[in-house]
Amino acid sequence: MIIRGDEPEQLRLLKRLYKPGNYFLQGNEAVAYGALFAGCRFYAGYPITPSSEIAETMARELPKLGGYYLQMEDEIGSIAAMVGASWTGFKVMTATAGPGFSLMQENLGYAVMTETPLVLVDVQRSGPSTGQATKGAQGDFFQAKWGTHGDHPIVAVSPISVEDAFWETVRAFNISEKLRTPVVVLFDGVLAHTREQIRIPDVEEVEITYRKLPKNEEEAKLPFGDPHGDGVPPMPLFGHGYFTHVTGSTHKENGLRDVYTPEVHDRLVRRIHRKIEQNKHVYEKYEEYFTDDAEILVVSWGVTARPSLGAVLKARDEGIRVGLFVPKTVHPFPGKRIKELGKKVRAILVPEMNLGQLILEVQRFVNDDVLLKGVNKIGGVPLTVEEILREIRGVA
Amino acid sequence: MAKEIYSTYPMVKYLRKEALPTALCPGCGGGTVLNAFANAVDQLKIDPKDLVVVSGIGCSAWIASPYFLADTLHTTHGRAIAFATGVKVGLPDKKVVVISGDGDLASIGGNHLLHAARRNIDITVLLVNNFIYGMTGGQVAPTTPFGAKTTTSPYRNIEHPLQISETVAAAGASYVARWTTAHVYQLIESIKTALQVKGFSLVEVISQCPVQYGRRNKMKEPAEMLRWFLKNSVPVSKAKKMSPEELEGKFIIGEIINRQRPEFTEELNKLIDEVQEHFGLKGE
Ligand SMILES: Cc1ncc(C[n+]2csc(CCOP(=O)(O)OP(=O)(O)O)c2C)c(N)n1
Ligand code: SF4
What is the pLDDT of residues A180-211, one digit of tens each? Predict the structure, then answer.
């Protein structure tokens, strides 16, 4: 059984095609190259601004690596094709923006329920609805978490720069493969279209993981079991004679549907949750700046984390004891760490390009005696250093 | 008695025993479709290890998954063909078959159906047309005959049914045929052809749902529905000479189209070869 993209000649091809060094790339291109380095060899998508350059880069580069680009008839078909391809052993990705992400939600839930690894990049744009289609935003924080129906966990990562987009995409694939689960990359239209210097690494510098495959017939017969106690079942790929049955309906460890026994549903859905909870080490990631002595904390994510850092640096120059916390994995939210930090500071500011979403997660973990304030901007223009600095001074 | 027949049923080797008995109502046409498909696989000596069967949601979707013993993917409502597209690209040497209902494939899934036919991807679709949404309790479907009664057209259906086979043929499929569950041997032959054709193939099976459709349209017994099929079936060749008025309410049976066109996964792999050749990446 093979995971496509794993063959030794793939490494040689990558080395031939992408020389390490500094490049001037767009955020969307960085996502695409991250995917290629991570082993993605199947992309199915439907064009939507501001994500389209990801599709265009994949359409151009994938065939060189022997990979497949499919332009499907819509977003629903795109994620469906990805699930099908993932069960044949491909690492798969799609990229979309708000309206397309909405269309993908039903099958995102299907991927959670059937434990299908895939990476879904949502290049957030201004909404609701078609909103300002060409402008960036950070309004899909909760769509990523609660967009599909039912009780389900989700893992979402969020890059803060063009170079970070490369590495966070690689990380999204690694998490997805390790935990046999879909991973959302919450990117945004601002960084997607920003050009920055990025260093394309040597192939060997990129750590790549592959999903667990069944060791024997016995493991293959339980595609939804938990033989290793980590909550992650080995994945018997299609086409190898295992006669695997996969369904989005409630199923037993052997894959067969049982929607009548409460315990079966309880066992399955709780394991899918437990798999994410107990493997925090696989995905938890955040960055901290000056949090040791901070009495004011800025918590920011994605594109807004950078003007936030700029503002914190300037405020520090002015002698304000302010720190910055940036969750890189935004779901599940690193609440434990926020709780610790929340006990040490008297004010928390949460800048984001929406009317207040991440702030609700922060709120769950801090006490009432902490001043909690959102710094919010909508309209498609990112927050500036000055705008955030002004707010920091305001609570200093 | 019933047990005896069952124990000598040779096609049982293709079924997932732990999933039996099936959830289909007695007299449902779904059993005939499962039987015909198993016979076609058997006659062509296809190893089930070389099969991946995909279905959407609905009674007809269950024919394949879970009951057929192969790799089976039971997907979301309407999306089976899109899922199957990913499977086929991943496993171009396997036979990828979609078995599902008319509501699933032609209503909510209509877009995927048309575009898979246009791409001419090598997938075989068995579309079970029972004129109704069976699983959800007998609501009106895009295939419900004009004037028929359903739970959501309690007075009469005022919409015109979609001619699925003709539409899919026009969209670019390589092979399209239509039969009813009263034409079992012809049906098996068509499924065999469809499985061997390189390209998108669709076999529409007009099938009885006595419980949800028949009961409300004066055909409570499965046999009454089969007689209705037989009485109103017109072979393609004869239909060509008939006027649209004469064909109203008739089932055109036989091969609607059978042609060769470049197939999607082959073209995709050819393209990759060309690109790798062009960039001097071959044999790396
Ligand atoms: C998105 C979505 N909408 C609606 C349903 C409910 N639903 C389940 S089966 C079905 C109809 C199936 O009809 P058909 O494909 O004709 O199959 P049949 O049961 O008649 O064989 C519907 C509407 C669903 N499961 N998902
Ligand atoms: S409701 Fe109709 S289609 Fe569904 S199993 Fe019963 S007879 Fe068959």
Answer: 999 999 999 999 999 999 999 999 999 999 99
Check if B210 has its Cβ closer than 6 Å to any atom of ligand 1: no
Say yes or no for a CB contact (<8 Å) between B76 and A110. Answer: yes
Which site among A16, A73, A253 would you substitute to test the B interface, given the most B Cβ atoms closer than 10 Å to its Cβ?
Answer: A73
Structural tokens at position A393:
């001074």
Contact between residue A100 and residue A128 where contact means Cβ atoms under 8 Å apart: no
- Reply yes or no: is the peptide bond before residue A50 cis, omega within 30 of 0: yes
Helix (H) or strand (E) holding A248: none
Longest dimension (CA), chain B: 68
Collect all residues with Cβ–Cβ distance below 8 Å to A15 and sequence separation of at least 6: A202, A203
For chain B, the distance separating the N- and C-terminal CA atoms, rounded to the nearest angstrom, is 64
**Is pLDDT at B66 greater than 60 in this prediction?**
yes
**Contact yes or no for A81 and B66 at CB 8 A:** no
Query: Which pairs with CB-CB distance under 8 Å and at least 24 residues apart come from A212-218?
Result: A212/A180, A213/A1, A213/A3, A213/A237, A214/A242, A217/A242
Torsion over CA: A335, A341, A344, A348 (sign): negative
- Chain A residue closest to B115 (CA)? A73
Residue in A18, A36, A221, A243 to test binding to B, most B beta-carbons within 10 Å: A243
Place of tokens 């690689």: A170
Helix (H, G, I), strand (E, B) or coil at A182: strand
Cα B39 to Cα B13, B43, B128: the distances in Å are 11, 6, 17
Tell me the residue length of chain B.
284
What would the pLDDT profile of A209-268 be if each residue is shown by its tens digit? Answer: 999 999 999 999 999 999 999 999 999 999 999 999 999 999 999 999 999 999 999 999
Average pLDDT of chain A? 97
* Residues ≥6 apart with Cβ < 8 Å to A319: none
Given CB atoms, is A7 within the 8 Å cutoff of chain B? no
Tell me what pLDDT residue B1 has.
44
> Quick check: B188 and B198 in contact, CB under 8 A?
no
Please state, in angstroms and as integers, the Cα–Cα distance from residue B67 to each residue in B20, B23, B34, B44, B91, following that order.
7, 10, 9, 20, 22
- Dist. CA B170–CA B243, nearest whole Å: 20
- Comparing CA positions, the residue from A74, A35, A76 lying closest to residue A53 is A35
Name every residue whose Cβ is closer than 8 Å to that of residue A395 and which is 6 or more positions away in sequence: A296, A347, A349, A371, A373
Give Cα B138 to chain centroid, integer Å.
Answer: 19
Q: How far apart are CA A377 and CA A383, in angstroms?
A: 6
How many whole angstroms separate alpha carbon A201 and alpha carbon B61? 47
Ligand 2 cavity residues, CB under 6 Å: B 24-25, 28, 30, 59, 130, 134-135, 209-212
Whether B65 and A245 have beta carbons less than 8 Å apart is answered as yes
pTM of the complete model beyond 0.95: yes
Is the interface score ipTM higher than 0.95? yes
